[in-house]
Fold this protein.
Amino acid sequence: MYEIAVEDTFDAAHCLRDYQGTCRQLHGHTYRVRAAFRFASLADTGLAFDFRKAKEVLRGVIEHLDHQYINDLPEFSVQNPSAEAIAKFIFDRVKASVPETYSVSVWETPTSCATYFED
């Protein structure tokens, strides 16, 4: 089994509804996103998957979130825009383009991240 991963960042604001803490206030992050892909074999080129294509797919998804107030997006009008929910949102969109998507991790800070993957 082979695993490749790519990372990118985006800037956005959000607040957590019904949360008892400072994150209920409007605030922003420079989110770091890591998408990992798993492949059982290599292509004839010797690659599991082209890093450039993986980066393009991830960038295409996070452009929807970049410089947005995430709470205002239709996908998060009810769902709290937590790191966990954002990770699943990105995972679902990336997996639609690359079925071998294994996981998506979203960092809100350099030391705090949430990861979504399916069994």
